[in-house]
Amino acid sequence: MINNGFNNYTLRKYKKSGLIKDYTAESLLVLKEPDHYVICPYCGKKFLEVTDRHYRQFHSLETDRPVLHSKMSWELKIRAIRALNDRTRSERVKKLVLYNKTEKGRERVRKQSLEKWKDPGFRGKIELYQKSCRLDVISSALHARSFNRKKASDLHLFFKAKMVQAGISGFETETVVGPYSIDEADVARKIAVEIDGCYFHGCEVCGYSGCPSTVLTDKRKTGYLIKRGWRIIRIPEHDIRKNIEFCLLRLNF
User: Fold this and answer.
1) pTM value surpassing 0.90
2) What topology does CATH give the domain 150-249?
3) Please, what is the angle between helix 212-227 and helix 103-118, to 10°?
């Protein structure tokens, strides 16, 4: 058996499915000879294998469904599979990241997260892990916040620009206080300004429940700062969109 990271199950899985949907010189240079591929009799696409799965998906009305297998050795097939995966993996990830940034994508991720947390077994497993590995959880959270604290949203940057135009000074962007990062902070007067996007941070006016992890982090950050004498001003996205002058007046003391 060829040891290229493919076990028997993987090879059988690729055998049963139409594992490569198209053939291009750029992605699958290994398919050079006619016996390296087979051609679907209905759509004309080139495959390593044309199986029932392909027919069911794209040619369900056809009655004659020959299962075609190329004569290429499994060693060459593995190289072809790897060539396609290496080329398309980054493209698939980019498409998924871009889709998750859209409104439909965010809604899909939110629903998946809610469904997952409705399962008492999953919730209990997470709670048990957090209790038994508390130090690891805290360390992981601190690392994640330190990684993300330099990223300011477009809404935040827009509001910061308006603050500068209005002559409001004394505030520092993404100020680190303990394990948290404050959007705009006046350290001398201990005033923290948080720019909250309605969708992720939750908003009763807009009807968004918010991302559970983001809402929980907001509550913990609020408690942490209040205990240390900070005053927190939260400015929601819909107020910035509708009346930014009023939002700026809240910062003039």
Assistant:
1) no
2) Endonuclease; Chain A (3.40.960)
3) 80
